[in-house]
Design a protein that fits this description.
The protein has 350 residues and is of the alpha/beta class. The protein has two domains: 2-136, 3-Layer(aba) Sandwich (Rossmann fold); 159-343, Rossmann fold, CATH 3.40.50. It is 35% helix and 19% strand. The protein contains twelve helices and 14 strands. Strands 8-9-7-6-12-13-14 form a seven-stranded parallel β-sheet, with helices on both faces. It has a five-stranded parallel β-sheet with strand order 2-1-3-4-5, sandwiched between helices. The chain has a two-stranded antiparallel ribbon with strand order 10-11. The longest helix is centred in the middle third of the chain and has 19 residues, at 110-128. It is elongated and about 60 Å long.
């Protein structure tokens, strides 16, 4: 693969470059935003690694330009910025993933940075290699026929567990505002995010939505009509205390998961606690997190809904579920809220 690194810290750029070349990648390095914009536009790269703090042109401007000109090129953001607004803006603009530079004068965590980048580069390449630009840039259909569930044989779900990663922040901002205030079920979401993102992201969603959206806290009761976002760095699961009472559990175990929080951990717990009353939703994202959990929900008799390939930014996580044959239904992003509302037999009040 051919990779472009836009990084003005010469020592860090050299170290990352050496690590990537050791993985047999072809690497070009530029040191300012104007060079990055020109190189990424004029040449073909499989992945662009972009620092936000660049001279001449900031990284967000470069990212915005790339998303308009080359929407299929994965962009991984590498930055030391600590302001949450910068991080959320980065994801809003279309970054595929985020690798924080946790650097200090006495401790350079660059070994972790390099291994993290290599893992995410591999995931980006694997997830996007079969998707041409025309598919990646295709918008969800404005309107199309909504396939209805067979309510006669359907047990209405009591909880929704949703997993997403790359492309998820934008997708969630599109679909969550479509849920009504009178939603009769809770929605629990694992969105892969670095530390410091989940709380402000939940607050932003809450301002856009009729339902309440908040970052989950340990042992809080699960309530209908509330959307819970898993915090970064801990797994979110559910414990069902009775038919009508359940609570959220936050824990760092298991520690050997590729992602913390993990979609699999959430969905496995939901499948165990709610069995055929669970509805699992898998959306855009790199890798295969969620495939095991969706399979658990499917085997327990719950419903499983997958985002289709055409409307995914990265068709990795839904692809893994589709290949297992465990999706009850596959729909465009724009249809996911309607499918959930029909499944739970939501009726709008007159």
């Amino acid at each position: 693969m051919r990779i472009l690194i836009a990084e003005d810290d010469e020592a860090l750029a050299r170290f990352v470059c050496q690590g990537l070349e050791a993985e047999h990648y072809s690497v070009d390095v530029v040191s300012d935003g104007e060079q990055a914009r020109t190189a990424a536009t004029e040449f073909e790269y499989d992945v662009v690694i972009l620092d936000l703090n660049l001279p001449k042109l900031d990284g967000v401007s470069v990212l915005r330009h790339l998303r308009s000109k080359k929407p299929s090129v994965p962009v991984l953001v590498l930055t030391q910025r600590t302001r949450v607004e910068d991080r959320v803006q980065c994801l809003d603009t279309g970054a595929d993933d985020y690798v924080p530079k946790q650097l200090s004068p006495t401790s350079l965590d660059i070994l972790h940075i390099r291994s993290d980048l290599v893992a995410k580069i591999r995931a980006a390449a694997q997830s996007r290699k079969s998707l041409p630009d025309r598919v990646l840039s295709r918008k969800p259909p404005r309107s199309s026929a909504i396939e209805r569930w067979d309510e006669g044989s359907l047990t209405a779900p009591a909880i929704v567990a949703l997993g997403t990663s790359t492309g998820g922040p934008k997708a969630l901002q599109e679909i969550l505002p479509l849920f009504p205030r009178g939603l009769s079920v809770p929605i629990l979401i694992v969105q892969h995010m670095p530390p410091g993102f989940a709380g402000p992201f939940a607050q932003r969603l809450n301002t856009l939505c009729s339902v309440t959206v908040r970052e989950a806290t340990h042992r809080e009761p699960i309530q209908p009509g509330v959307v819970y976002i898993a915090p970064a760095g801990v797994h979110m699961s559910v414990e069902r205390l009775s038919d009508s009472r359940a609570v959220i559990c936050l824990d760092t175990h298991p520690e050997d998961c590729l992602h913390i929080p993990s979609v699999d951990v959430l969905m496995n717990s939901v499948a165990g606690a709610f069995r055929n009353l669970a509805l699992g939703v898998i959306m855009t994202g790199m890798g295969s997190d969620g495939a095991e959990g969706m399979q658990s929900i499917y085997r327990q008799g719950g419903l499983t809904l997958g985002q289709d390939e055409a409307t995914c930014i990265v068709y990795g996580m839904p692809r893994a579920c589709a290949e297992l044959g465990i999706l009850t239904r596959v729909v465009p992003l724009s249809q996911i809220p309607a499918q959930i509302l029909q499944a739970i037999r939501y009726r709008r009040r007159a």
